[in-house]
Amino acid sequence: MEIERGITKAMWGYDGNLEPLYDVEDKGSEILVTFDLPRVKKEDVKINTTEDTIEVIAKMSNTICWERWGGIQKRITFQAFKKQIRFPVHIDPEKATASFKNGILRINLPKMRRAVLIGID
Amino acid sequence: MNMGELVRIVEEGDVVYNNPIVLEGLPDVGLVGTIAASYAVEKMGYKEIGYIESDLFPPVMVIHKGKLKSPFRIYGDENVVVVLSEVAIPPNAIYPLTEALADWFKSINAKLVISITGLPAKDRMDIEKPEVFAVGNNEDAMKTLKAKQVDLLEEGFIAGTYAIMQRECSKKDLSAIALLAQCYPVYPDPGAAASAIESLEKFLELGIDVAELNERAEEIKLKARDLMRQTVLSAPEMQKEVEQDIPFMYQ
């Protein structure tokens, strides 16, 4: 399985979805995630979060069609970007905020934390 | 051992160079150089004039229109030479690659080597028009940059192919500059490439219009995704993060 994954891992699938380029940054009290979503309009972006995951599905304004390319050698089309990211810490989905500008989606995800004051003896 | 022998520049055709200006657009942050250099090749109609081979490169060839090619290619004419790659440069190839390229640039009497690259900007999303900064490797290069009124990087580290290219050109007594456009660190950035080309025009005066580059930005971003991903994976080994550090002897 590992070998197969090493050979066939790609940023596209036969399901019409492309994996977007993305970046995750731990900012201490929050996690900042950005996605590069060319050909996407703000209203076509759907973001779903749970306590430890985020899923972005973004429909492109027009379908991409690649032909005569790679191992498939046939016409393949893509309609959307899709990516799920799992975080190693719990986040607070209710407090998440997002913005979209020039094709870049930025999502701020505050970490779930219980503040515990430590007394000094 | 001469490290340059590990990398071979293979010339094709019979170009008679006339003190060319060299553009180096190898993959780096934001793929600024790669996007800018390939756009210049397309707009100027430069022909393939050679390729680079090395046992240090990944065992990869590329097929375009059914024709087998090296992903490390050289385009140009008698006045302009462009060095491009369609795959990320392996970090262990940087030293021999830049040494071999500088040797070759010297042999064709290049008058100036210009590396086009990006300057990672954390707030890039909020920057409408990326600014371009420059580095020069000798007095002549610095004089040229000042004459063209390009803002200079005054302090800081530079890392990656372009950084070592500056040094190798110095060793061969070649003038070299690097143009760095503010860019997204990990996303292909055609907007930054457009700024870099506008700055490049001060040196080349080829009349390259960036309107089409801006119009095709989204298409370029889509095609550049895989090369961007490869380049990001090699960034830690390139010590790219050091570019965010303050030098100890900062003045």
Share in helix of chain B: 25-40%
Strand content of chain A: over 45%
Report the strand count of chain B.
11
What's the arrangement of strands in the largest beta sheet of chain B? Answer: 1-3-6-7-2-8-11-9-10
Which blocks of ≥5 consecutive residues of chain B have pLDDT under 50? none
Radius of gyration of chain B: 17 Å
Structure annotation, total helices of chain B:
8
Silhouette of chain B: globular
Distance between the termini of chain B: 38 Å
The CATH architecture name of chain A reads: Sandwich
In short:
Chain A is mainly beta.
Describe this structure in words.
The complex is a heterodimer of chains A (121) and B (251). Chain A is mainly beta and 121 residues long. Chain A has one helix spanning 2-8; strands at residues 17-18, 21-26, 30-36, 40-49, 53-66, 76-86, 97-101, 104-110. Chain A has one domain (21-110): Immunoglobulin-like, CATH 2.60.40. Chain A is built from 1 helix and 8 strands; from the N terminus they run H-E-E-E-E-E-E-E-E. Chain A has a 4-stranded mixed β-sheet, with no helix packed on it. In chain A, a hairpin with a 3-residue loop joins strand 4 and strand 5. Chain A is elongated and about 70 Å long. Chain B has 251 residues and is of the alpha/beta class. Chain B has a single domain (3-243), classed as PAC-like subunit (Rossmann fold), CATH 3.40.50.10900. Chain B is 33% helix and 23% strand. In chain B, helix 1 crosses helix 5 (190-204). Chains A and B meet through loops of A and helix 7 and helix 8 of B.
